[in-house]
Write a structure and sequence with these properties.
131 residues; 67% helix; 5 helices
């Protein structure tokens, strides 16, 4: 189990470090969506508004935190909403096209949340009381 956790942390962490860094400073070629398409319109708003830069920062920082290990739960908390948005984009805007990496990263995230479940007990309680 320990090897699976380490391998999952490495895959998820490095994946988000690479893709987050690519958003902030593009070095991997990304094909442009067809002009006038829904994805093109969406990206036409996201990039000029610097919204994608904010997402890139969250991906980069979350990936680093997951990769470090001792800070993995915090990294998982940062990457959770990013993964929801990745899946929503591919399902709702792309019609399911290109969803495979998002599904793989989501499965790694779910596995790691389970592996670090002791750190998330307070979040998943029905009896929460303020401190």
């Amino acid at each position: 189990m320990k090897i699976a956790i380490i391998a999952s942390r490495i895959l998820l962490g490095i994946g988000f470090i690479i893709f987050g860094a690519n958003i902030l400073h593009p070095f991997l070629p990304m094909p442009a969506p067809p002009a006038g398409s829904l994805p093109a319109q969406f990206m036409g708003v996201m990039y000029p508004s610097h919204w994608m830069a904010l997402i890139g920062v969250f991906q980069l920082v979350g990936g680093i935190l997951v990769l470090v290990g001792r800070t993995a739960p915090l990294g998982l908390v940062l990457l959770g909403p990013v993964l929801v948005n990745i899946l929503a984009f591919h399902i709702l805007i792309m019609g399911g096209e290109g969803i495979q990496p998002g599904v793989v990263f989501s499965l790694l995230e779910i596995f790691l949340v389970y592996a670090y479940r002791n750190h998330f007990k307070a979040i998943f309680t029905a009896d929460a009381v303020p401190a």
